[in-house]
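To close the chapter, one final illustration. This time we ask the reader to focus less on the individual chains and more on the assembly as a whole: which components sit near each other, and how the overall shape emerges from the parts.
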Amino acid sequence: MTGAASPDSSTLEPGEQARADVYRILGALLAGPPAAALIEMLRGITPDEAESGAAMTAAWQALQAAAEHATPAALEDEYFNLFIGLGRGELVPYASFYIHGFLMEKVLASLRDELAALGITRRAGVAEPEDHAAAVCEIMGMIIAGHGLHLRQLAFFESYIGTWLGRFFEDLGKAETADFYRAVALLGQQFLAVERQYFTLPD
Amino acid sequence: MNKHHAAERRRFLKGIAAAGGAAAVTTVFASGLIATDPGGTAVRKIQQPESSGYRETDHIREYYRTLRS
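The assembled structure is written out below.
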């Protein structure tokens, strides 16, 4: 299902839509190696001048530049080396690992309870636990696109994103096998900074 | 939500996405890890508190805080 299919998506405020879109793009980039169609789209983006500062604009420009010379085959290798690897990838993109040091830990159990309450499940055939970096980005995008209340968004952000995803993006930006994904890391870091600031604005 | 605050929040978010980014989202979404249930109740459930007269109060904020900790 796409959040865009929700009956109220047309009335979503442009800013909220933009936040949902950024989360979904990050989710798509982290869920698997970007397919040719996504790379092509990223080549065609035109960054706006962001009111929140030049950092977001610069991050989009970097991602666009990275997409220019990216190929699906190279990205498949890069994704494999970063996140899957022989035995283990360079990074372990799970909240449990970042928060507790091990996989399938307490934060995953609590996230699963939360998802059950929301009626959200893993896509059929997906083996990755729900605390994968891509999954939490997708879920946050769905909550926003579903007109989630500010308080609900904040609760999810604080419990499942703010606690670790910034450190993950920092590691991704420094990873030896990262090339294209350095730009993804930069976008993620800058966007999380925007989000943190956004949540401090008065409701 | 206070109208002035809403305007401030809108202004803050202006330009955070890149033009063309939304098209990217619709192109790639099928490749994600997460699906909602077939009835799409996630969206309805998220909205429910507001439509049922839910109001954010310090008491509720505190309750949410205890749930998170």
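The longest strand of chain B covers residues 34-36. Chain B touches chain A through 51 residues (CB under 8 Å). With these observations in hand, you are ready for the problems at the end of the chapter.
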